[in-house]
Records
---
Amino acid sequence: MKFAVRPQIHGYETFAQFAEAHRVTNRDLIFTQRILHESFMQGSPAQTLFYDDFCGGEPTDVAVDAMLVAVHKLGFERLIAIGGGSILDCAKMLALDSEDNVAGLFKAGVQPGRKVGLMLVPTTCGTGCEVTCVSVLDFPGIGSKMGKGFDAGFADHAVLIDEMLSKIPYYVFATSSADALVHALEIYLAPTANAYTDMFCMAAARAILQGYRRIVEHGRDVIQQDAKSYLAASNMAGIALANVLAGGVHAIAMHFGSAHHVPHGEATRLFLPAVFKVYFEKEPAGKIADIARLIEEALGLPAGRENPFDALDRLLAEVVPTKQLSQYGMAEGDIRVYADKVIETQQRLLVNNYVPLSASDIAGIYSRLM
Ligand SMILES: [Fe+2]
């Protein structure tokens, strides 16, 4: 068993407080989106590199190659990445001490050191990737997203700034927090989980489920009141993720998200209830019973009256609505092909399943969601 919390974690209410505490100067490079810079960082002396100059949606290997070329021309001492998971994941690679392109960096065994200081500031409450060392990129050439952990990808500082959530679009809030919930629930069930990851996963899942219940009961205005709680929950789930990989929900979502250009959080949320219903059916008495109880408690349901994962399904349908797989463009004929592709390309995650999922199990999950 091994457990570590790698970056130092800081919390501030505003960007200005953060910039003062960490003495941000023109020797720093802020890597962010234009809209975030305009909203929160006006007047900062730091140099800037804008993600939107390279990439519209989630990062591809081609876009990151262009970012690497741009960054190698700049002189700076700290890279301060401020954004959602895509920006933070790219930043981990941009801070490496290497002249390699993405293909070179993703080769097995390649682990360069770090060239500059690295600070990661999330502006969504989901991926938790401010505390992980993994970069996930889309490789359109092979039709799948893939992740790689870089030892030097752990930041020196992970910084949670409340005001970064103040302008978050509802869709981004919903899908990113749902991804954090998936991290917490999947890692709790992973065979490699331990007492420490269990504690972080349970605290994160409880906070998000309670927050979602409050949204259903009181409306979306409560999200801002709960900002600190969501930032902490996604960070805690991220700490678990830095120690133990996610499992089958992520494996299926990574392939589907790449095939149909569905953002990561929407894709993981899409498959969460269906995968967990299969787990609950196959092995109801194991650790999943703890999650069943947690759902009943957080949602105020009478114990044992209904399948708690049906209740989870209903809650998610209200807070994080998604579509049928066919509405994303998936055809009946794709089911078997996709199931085989998940087995072929996602073993890194599938080994972490609560119970093994066969290609037929995965095909059944797709069929139920068509
Ligand atoms: Fe995720």
---
Amino acid sequence: MEILGDIKNYDWGKLGESSEVVKLAKLNDSSFVVENNKPYSELWMGDHVSGPSKVKSTGESLASFIQKDCESIIGGQPKLPFLLKVLSIRKALSIQVHPNKEEAERLHRLYPDVYKDPNHKPEIAIALTPFLALCDFRPHAEIYAQLKSHNELVELLGISNIDLIKTNGAEGLKTCYSKLMKSDDASIRKCIDGLAEKFKNDDSKLAEVFRTIQADFPYDVGSLSLFFLNLIEMKPGDSIYLAAKIPHAYLFGDCIECMSCSDNVVRAGLTPKFKDVENLLSMLIYDGSKADDKLFKPTVLDASHPHTYLFKPPIDDFAVCKIELPSDVNDYEVVNSKFGSIVLVISGNAKLSGSGMETLEIHRGSVIFLASKVGPKVSLTDIEDDFICYQAMFNNF
Ligand SMILES: [Zn+2]
């Protein structure tokens, strides 16, 4: 059946019609009224308690619809283990890290008001438009060279701490990053002022991002994390996977995001919200890796589904399929999970049909919930234009 996503208006979202969230939501809901200067940041597709989707024909919450018959709708699970989103970003999101399951349980037990659930929160982001993100620490040699090349950073962090990255690897990096995160406001201000002066007429990507972040979040320590973390420029279709303990931030652009159902975030900057520095520093993985190695590549599902590209993270909670059909393909088979799935159409038109469901005419913006009793095989027919959709489901591949 068709569903309507839940729209979020967080401050960092793209405004009005420029938001991908609006572009897609409008095509799925003719009654949707767009306000020009309002941010439209996220479209949530799933049964999450903080923003469940609605059944399009009745307006009922997807969460209550599912709860009526978990067995035939989502294969007997208590609720969907994942949440699918579209994000449209004008202003950077906080630099953050997510705990693994064990740590999430500990943090939730100790600080239930801050860490509201005991679950982990791995995420995958797939770019819909040119997309900019910070992901993981850079290789140690790169961080060492970056920090050494700016007197302002040497003064802030201390040359002996910076040298530790060369001599002590991950432990040295932890010392150096801890020094950054625990520096007092006045020292951080001085360092940022010096770098801002230096980067005024610099046309490197790093300098450009530094200026943007400094304008949006004046004197936030997060802008100095730029020298530690990989700056990743993604093309539409490129993806990154954010495992537990990996620092990251989404900076600009539109993407599909899929994650486990959790809200557990430990923040490190670019936010007015609470920064839990001690838990952050003890949780991070300081090994570092190359920017190119952070791109998360899909594989073709199998020989019978040559146009289905599977993004399969190393966790059970979710996987994402991208189905991209060449113009000469007129019918195609979609695989449904025994726990149900959610499909978002990005472009093209088609008819969708299967056992136990009515035939649906779907198009760009359509969001379809496939219950577990539908399928396992669902047909796309009468396919027109370049058809692309994303499908989120339990990772039972
Ligand atoms: Zn995250």
